[in-house]
Write a sequence for this structure.
């Protein structure tokens, strides 16, 4: 397979996955503002949203809600907006149109046409729920097209590799963003109010990754900071947990290489990262969660660099790279 | 003549125009009334729905072109597609096929001759000065013989039907003619929307084109023990014909590559894959000569492959079409094709030329300037309908200005009498009815080392503006499915 095609398939997977997480985060965060137990300031939520999207804002400045929503959702000038991400997914898919199925292409193309048709003013006033919900639905359709209409050959492996690696990165970013929110809360207000609000942040966090119900089943309704982190980082059967996805990444890399081989550099790094999370000391994680997860995120990005070196630039002439991440505070 | 009704209400053919559906002429297709009946039986609302559903089919398939928008989203439009098929009778087509074979054979020999012995120039049949002054002349091709002596593997010949009922050649496209993806998608859209029509008439299939093209490419591959690896070279997703490049690559099961996917080492072209390099044998390139190889052509080209011409000269790779074929599709050269046919094949041309006055010839220049208001003036090396002047629509001041331009650079212009392109029933959306619109026909001839293959069908382009003679998509043109009866 052509190296550029492999890279483009991989990025198609990454952008599809990214658009879904961005949309879901926006929806859950925004609506959490409406049914929070106590008045969470609107500014607080908007800042959290901007932080997740890696979009700059002045710490002391006043944020205008409709502008923030337009910026993260609709603005083509902002490369991390939902619309820009969908457009990037479609542009990548368009240039591998000849290797993917018609069904998959038409699903991605319809997704883009839907997102492009959305009226930005309408979005900021009343369309936010419908739009972000539809993004999730379209992504689900696209994932089923990937699963059901592609040969599960190397093309498929690269798309899936992009999806799982992006999911690891996004879940880490989401956890960090919400932990950061909880920290900000603890610095203000009285102790009782804080306790409720912090617990509420954990509920929001689980809802952002659509894991609230399954967390309850896994931990029999008991919810603490520790169970929340354990579930999102290490649950072996929850398909959005970090460990679950790293295990998939490892498997996909072994398929690309033809066999499991711990000495092969890309598999080595992926294996190490997987083992790190698999045997994670949660006491330690709970002490310094943000720092620990940030260090792990850097490792995830390095894994991407290794994949790029090994598969996308095999003949040492560089191909243009795409943006791996949003900036986050 | 059957009285039109329903969607054909108020249909009137302008005087002096030949309408392929309503006028009678020697090769007219006799069963058009049956097709019209299918439309007539439809309620106007039904037809609107069908039309919308055909449009949606193009939009979802992503067969669109981008229109600049300030928001940055890039509005996308589909090329207008008309649901009334253009039908060509079998006997007429057989004749056309012979004519296309003959014409493109002569053109291919002409290019070989120009880069080789130059017999035709030495004998004064075609003026040497006219050929040697072409911007498309490639010195690197001199004395080089491509595999199978084929230069123009893919030829797009544009034909128009005149009021006398006969087809004439309007121009030849011998660099990288595009449009075949519309032939394939138009047929697909017709099958999805008006499938019942195909029960009335036996139509030649067009979906074999990719297989025909692949066989043509394979026939000119350098001999090697392994089977030939053919690739399609595209400038990239932002090119307006990218959909076509991608479609052909997919249907031929070839890699669709961009310049940076290839490199040359030891005079061999290699493909960069995830598991190392693979040798490339045939490049069906859809980029212009100037961008092919920065070592030989434009040094600033990012689209091409450095060293490609070296590998080509050594016969290690075949480039399709060969570089330098543009010398023969210059509009001034077009006028000499009948003479080429007589010179190389000793035959009379089967398809005539639209008479052409070459302004670099003093007597033609004189005629052009004297008869300017009746003529159509075209720059010789522009395509896409750009720069075409239909002189009876110009005022005196504009005519004077044009005359000055021609006198200043006669080599750059040709003039032709205004040919009344035939019309065909075309659905006009904002009036919700059919009206006559001018059409032409682009045909596709493939020349391989083994044989010549001609696509039975082609792209009928429609000038959607009332009275307009310019059918190019960049100038407000649409297209129709073209049926050749088997």
């Amino acid at each position: 397979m052509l190296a550029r095609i492999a890279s483009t398939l991989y990025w198609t997977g990454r952008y599809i996955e990214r658009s879904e997480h961005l949309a879901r985060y926006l929806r859950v965060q925004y609506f959490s503002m409406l049914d929070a137990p106590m008045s969470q300031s609107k500014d607080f939520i908007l800042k959290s949203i901007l932080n997740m999207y890696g979009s700059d804002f002045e710490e002391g400045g006043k944020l205008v809600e409709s502008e923030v929503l337009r910026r993260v959702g609709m603005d083509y000038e902002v490369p991390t907006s939902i619309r820009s991400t969908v457009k990037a997914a479609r542009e990548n898919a368009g240039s591998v149109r000849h290797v993917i199925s018609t069904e998959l292409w038409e699903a991605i193309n319809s997704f883009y046409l839907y997102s492009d048709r959305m009226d930005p003013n309408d979005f900021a006033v009343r369309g936010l729920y419908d739009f972000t919900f539809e993004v999730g639905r379209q992504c689900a359709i696209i994932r089923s097209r990937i699963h059901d209409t592609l040969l599960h050959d190397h093309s498929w492996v690269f798309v899936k590799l992009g999806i799982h690696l992006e999911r690891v990165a996004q879940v880490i970013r989401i956890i960090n963003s919400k932990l950061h929110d909880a920290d900000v809360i603890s610095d203000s207000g009285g102790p009782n109010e804080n306790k409720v609000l912090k617990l509420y942040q954990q509920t929001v966090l689980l809802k952002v990754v659509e894991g609230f119900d399954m967390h309850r089943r896994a931990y029999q309704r008991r919810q603490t900071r520790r169970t929340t982190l354990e579930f999102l980082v290490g649950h072996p059967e929850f398909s959005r947990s970090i460990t679950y996805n790293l295990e998939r990444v490892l498997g996909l890399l072994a398929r690309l290489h033809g066999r499991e081989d711990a000495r092969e550099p890309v598999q080595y790094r992926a294996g190490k990262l997987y083992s790190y999370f698999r045997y994670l000391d949660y006491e330690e994680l709970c002490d310094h969660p943000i720092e620990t997860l940030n260090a792990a995120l850097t490792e995830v990005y390095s894994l991407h660099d290794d994949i790029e070196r090994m598969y996308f630039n095999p003949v040492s002439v560089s191909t243009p790279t795409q943006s791996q991440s949003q900036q986050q505070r | 003549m059957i009285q039109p009704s329903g969607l054909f209400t108020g249909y009137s053919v302008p005087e002096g125009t030949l309408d392929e559906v309503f006028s009678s002429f020697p090769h007219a297709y006799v069963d058009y009334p049956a097709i019209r009946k299918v439309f007539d039986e439809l309620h106007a609302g039904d037809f609107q729905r069908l039309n919308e559903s055909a449009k949606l089919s193009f939009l979802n398939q992503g067969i669109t072109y981008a229109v600049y928008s300030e928001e940055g989203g890039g509005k996308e439009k589909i090329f207008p597609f008309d649901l009334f098929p253009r039908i060509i009778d079998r006997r007429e087509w057989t004749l056309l096929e012979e004519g296309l074979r003959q014409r493109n054979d002569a053109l291919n020999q002409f290019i070989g001759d120009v880069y080789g012995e130059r017999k035709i120039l030495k004998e004064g049949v075609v003026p040497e000065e006219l050929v040697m002054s072409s911007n498309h002349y490639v010195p690197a091709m001199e004395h080089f013989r491509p595999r199978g002596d084929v230069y123009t593997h893919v030829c797009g010949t544009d034909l128009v039907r005149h009021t006398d009922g006969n087809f004439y050649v309007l121009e030849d496209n011998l660099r990288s003619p595009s449009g075949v993806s519309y032939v394939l998608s138009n047929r697909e859209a017709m099958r999805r929307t008006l499938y019942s029509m195909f029960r009335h008439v036996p139509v030649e299939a067009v979906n074999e084109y990719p297989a025909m093209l692949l066989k043509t490419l394979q026939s000119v591959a350098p001999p090697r023990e392994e089977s030939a690896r053919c690739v399609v070279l595209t400038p990239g997703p932002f090119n307006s014909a990218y959909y076509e490049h991608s479609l052909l690559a997919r249907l031929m099961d070839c890699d669709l590559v961009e310049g940076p996917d290839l490199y040359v080492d030891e005079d061999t072209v290699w493909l960069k894959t995830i598991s190392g390099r693979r040798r490339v044998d045939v490049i069906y390139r859809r980029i212009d000569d100037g961008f092919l190889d920065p070592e030989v052509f434009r040094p600033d080209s990012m689209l091409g492959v450095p060293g490609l011409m070296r590998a080509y000269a050594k016969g290690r790779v075949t480039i399709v079409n060969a570089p330098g074929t543009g010398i023969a599709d210059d509009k001034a050269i077009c006028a000499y094709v009948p003479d080429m046919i007589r010179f190389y094949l000793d035959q009379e041309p089967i398809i005539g030329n639209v008479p052409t006055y070459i302004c670099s010839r003093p007597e033609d220049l004189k005629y052009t300037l004297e008869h300017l208001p009746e003529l159509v003036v075209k720059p010789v090396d522009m395509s896409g309908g750009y720069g075409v002047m239909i002189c009876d629509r110009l005022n005196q001041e504009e005519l004077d200005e044009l005359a000055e331009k021609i006198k200043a650079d006669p080599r750059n212009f040709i003039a032709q009498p205004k040919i009344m392109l035939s019309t065909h029933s075309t659905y006009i959306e904002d009036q919700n009815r059919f009206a006559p619109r001018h059409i032409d026909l682009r045909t596709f001839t493939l020349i391989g080392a083994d044989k010549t293959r001609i696509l039975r069908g082609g792209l009928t382009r429609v000038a959607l503006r009332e009275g307009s003679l310019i059918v190019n998509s960049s100038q407000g043109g649409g297209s129709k499915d073209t049926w050749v009866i088997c």
User: Anything to note?
Assistant: Chain B has a mean pLDDT of 89.
